[in-house]
TrEMBL record:
Enzyme class: transferase
Family affiliation: Belongs to the methyltransferase superfamily. PrmA family.
Pfam family, one: PrmA
GO molecular-function terms, A-Z: protein-lysine N-methyltransferase activity
Gene: prmA
Protein name: Ribosomal protein L11 methyltransferase
Source superkingdom: Bacteria
């Protein structure tokens, strides 16, 4: 069987957001080609001695993904274009041109799974793909199982790690937690396993909500403990009312700086007095802009955590 290859033209700054959008649509694997140099740490991990010369002034990026021949590619392309239109409100997504080609039969969709193994996020939080056995489980471990067919947030990226570590530090049993931009549901699931009484996740993409519900089931968490809703919490008045006012002890958002900035002016109404706003997905070059927005919207900064090029801000209402 041959595969249909679709290559999307975008910009470097939008790659992460576009990649997440594609995963939300059920696309299980992507390839990224850009001109972003790898870090020294990545070079050592990949055992690369001679790096290719890159035109770092060129901000174009190409994201390729694959469909089976019988898939309705016109429907997928339309969904991708709609997703790009939504994202363009927050980041320049470039031309959005999509090139279509064919490739030979390969098992790329499953081969990558060999490289996704259980890993320990810290001393007692373990992320485990559903098909892998956990051989080194310790007493007190919190194990999060994820189905790779629907999840895109595995906890391995610095932004997700920062959020998880903040939840572990500040969440106490019985709290109410709001997860904005819940994606695969990983933060909601971890909050629930850390003892949150109730977690509500929201995401603008209904496919992300479906992924969250599936991963919730994999982790044997009930819908009463963790619920998920589709919609834009910043603009959808009906969703805002459903989410509830001054109801949550913690709101967590692992998105992007350009979304966190306006969100910081909206999220406070959902937090109890003294509630915490944990935000991540902030590239370090935009840290000061985020801090200014969070402070300007009535929050006191409790902590600023950094990991690699990424920043997390923890603030109190």
């Amino acid at each position: 069987m041959k595969w249909v290859k679709l290559t999307l033209k975008t910009l470097t700054e939008a790659v992460e957001l576009v990649s997440d959008m594609l995963m939300d649509l059920g696309i299980e694997g992507i390839e990224i080609k850009d001109n972003v140099p790898i870090t020294e740490k990545e070079r050592r991990e990949l055992f690369i001695d001679i790096l290719p010369e890159l035109d770092t002034d060129n901000k174009e990026a190409f994201i390729s993904f694959y469909l089976e021949e019988e898939d309705n590619k016109e429907e997928v392309i339309q969904s991708v274009k709609e997703g790009l239109k939504e994202l363009s409100q927050f980041v320049d997504t470039g031309s959005g041109e999509i090139e279509i080609s064919e490739t030979e039969d390969v098992d790329w969709i499953n081969n990558w799974k060999a490289y996704f193994k259980p890993f320990r996020l810290d001393d007692n939080i373990v992320i485990k793909p559903t098909w892998e056995e956990l051989t080194d489980k310790k007493e007190g471990d919190i194990v999060i199982e994820l189905d790779p067919g629907t999840s895109f947030g595995t906890g391995s990226h610095e932004t997700t790690k920062l959020c998880i570590l903040a939840l572990k530090k500040y969440l106490t049993p019985g709290m109410q937690v709001l997860d904005v931009g819940s994606g695969s549901g990983i933060l909601s699931i971890i909050a629930s396993k850390l003892g949150a009484e109730k977690v509500l996740g929201t995401d603008i993409d209904p496919h992300a909500v479906e992924a969250s519900i599936e991963n919730r089931g994999v982790n044997k968490i009930s819908g009463e403990k963790a619920a998920f809703l589709s919609g834009d919490i910043m603009s959808d008045e009906s969703l805002k009312e459903t989410v509830g006012m001054e109801k949550y002890d913690i709101a967590v958002a692992n998105i992007l700086a350009d979304i966190i900035i306006p969100l910081s002016g909206k999220i406070g109404v959902h937090l109890k007095p003294g509630g915490l706003f944990i935000s991540s997905g902030i590239i370090n070059t935009k840290k000061e802009r985020v801090l200014a927005a969070v402070k300007g919207n009535g929050f006191d900064i409790l902590a600023v955590e950094e990991m690699g090029d990424w920043v997390s801000v923890i603030a109190r209402k």
